[in-house]
Amino acid sequence: MSDLTQQDSLYSAREPIFPRRVSGVFRTLKWWVMAVTLGIYYLTPWLRWDRGPNLPDQAVLVDLAGRRFYFFWIEIWPHEFYFVAGLLIMAGLGLFLFTSALGRVWCGYTCPQTVWTDLFILVERWIEGDRNARVRLWNADWSLRKVRLRVTKWVVWLLIAVTTGGAWVFYFADAPTLAHDLVTLQAPYVAYASIAVLTATTFIFGGFMREQVCIYMCPWPRIQAAMMDDATLTVAYRDWRGEPRGKHRKAEGAENLGDCIDCMACVNVCPMGIDIRKGQQMECITCALCIDACDEVMDKIGKERGLIDYLALSDEPLERAGNKPRPYWVHVFRVRTMVYTALWSLIGLAMVWALFVRPEIDMTVAPLRNPTFVTLSDGTIRNVYEVRLRNKHGEDHLFGMTVRGDDALKIDVEGSVGGPTTVVPANETKKLRVYVTAPPDSMPAEAHTTQIRFWVDDLTGGERAYNDSTFNGKGAAR
Amino acid sequence: MAEPRLDEATGQTTTGHSYDGIEELNTPLPRWWLWTFYLTIIWGIGYTIAYPAWPLISGATEGVLGYSTRAQVADDIAAHEAANAELVSQLVSADLSTLAPGDDLHRYAVARGGAVFRAQCSQCHGAGAQGAKGYPNLLDNDWLWGGTLEEIAYSVRHGIRNDTDENAHYSEMPAFGDILEASEIEALADFIPTLATGGGSEPGATLYADNCAACHGEAGKGDPVGGAPNLADAIWLYGDDRASLIETITNARFGVMPAWGQRLAEADVRAVSTYVHALGGGE
Prior knowledge:
heterodimer; A: Immunoglobulin-like; 3 domains; 18 helices; elongated; B: mainly alpha; Cytochrome Bc1 Complex, Chain D, domain 2; 10 helices
């Protein structure tokens, strides 16, 4: 073993990062993204949507106990969970699309970890000052002032964290009622527990873990490597233009230096604490703040912007040869991104179509197969079916049932008087036994099986639905 | 194995592991990861103290929280019993004939009765209540001892031909093998299936009128009060082929059912009767 390994510890402490304030196009964009995403997250549960009596008036609500998901005019029942699956697939394909076109754009702009960390850093800067002040405070001995600043910062972080955890539970219950119950300590235990857990994760991940979450905990950066190729636009340093770097512009030989004046602005603003000039690296979340920082400096020293820029690896040889890079749209509109877009739209359109054609009433039929048929005392053959009738209307509806397949077949609904009808209560699924009989010696009674179709008529609303099944006759026993 | 060296691009040393020229960097783990690891160990030890965990010679440590899944189940059952106490008391005092499908009480009785049926009745009557040879099918509309809810409840409560309940249904057909000649029994076996269709011939008709009609009725319609099966319908508990009929007439049958009133709670007797009545054959 050489000295090299013996010097290394297996573990290392986190290097503190003090991102400097920066302004520019991408910083402004990130402020807007933060405002919009946080706005959506915190305010959505408070939107109201009138659905009539007996139904919640919350626009977006996950009703776990009632097994319903409400999203504005859309109401998802458990048997329509494929809508949620479709949304998840669309979210996945959307990430593939954006990653193949723009690299880790999700990480840099919209990932909750990035957004909340950004917010926490903003709070930190308001309370403790910008980068230099924060470095000084970090290195300073503990004093009353340091304690005061630290405690203030933690309290504000904690408030944000509690609000974040608090907003989450409002998606699962009526927000105004739950807010009242939370304050008066009457809310269910699970609400407080959820808030506590999310408060803790927000506080720790946003305040102390930050880039550690991206580097060591998140699997997505690893997966994204498979989504990117050399035509993907990503944040990079034009080293052919910047190198050799050098500070002393008036020194001898300065005319041979590149555009990089080694001012460390790009490093100082980086929330991941890396040097983009070393090239593509795992830690980079492509937040583009180094682009803003460098552009500021380039403006000041009178050089062209874009020393650090959104670049595609495939353009590097072009640029080194002194040509212009291909335009952005060439990198964005590629076969790969087109295929992702097509798949994404296809699933989206299919779901929209399914959403519009889905009926307000629904029926499932399960034949009871133990036994397959029953012989009654006069020789009549009877089959039993377990039928579920679903009424998505806000009021009770009268449903009538008929059976087709053979004229000899008769239908009877459990508990019905004077005809095969039943009342299905509002917003409910009713389970009942339905008897179909074939008289002795009739075709379906003697046959092995007869294909039949159940029709349910919403006698109140006028809709119809059907379900196919089988009638077993005595032939089945032989 | 190559010598560890300093990798210039990353500033890290390598471990010295090299496979097909691919070397492994000796990047240190974050220290918080180490602390998290220690924390999980401490949590794990605490968990085994709080909950049942360590195996002993017989059994295991009980855990200071005193948790057990068995106690949890018992608590769940007790909680359900408590929640259903009102329905149970209604069921015990209800007039069964007034229960209508769709009522909460009826729904509860059918659900509870289904559980009782699967545990206590399905061994003989089948999981689907379809019965078997000698064990009546409870789905059809043919009832030896009557098919109203009260009559079914009576049969469940007191049973059939048992010697534990003096109110049990009791009927006993003689074994005609001791009374009639073999040829006479064969003539009866030929005649009985014609009760449903008509066209029976002598000597079966006379033999039937002399020996069977007293209980089974002249037209063979049976008698649910005395438990005499209907011989003119399509349902045969022991089979309607000639060999089965000869065996039945020769040796008689003697099906027995326990008196469930002695084994089950009153609520369960009523619930399972409601369940059977609701299977589709109830009168």
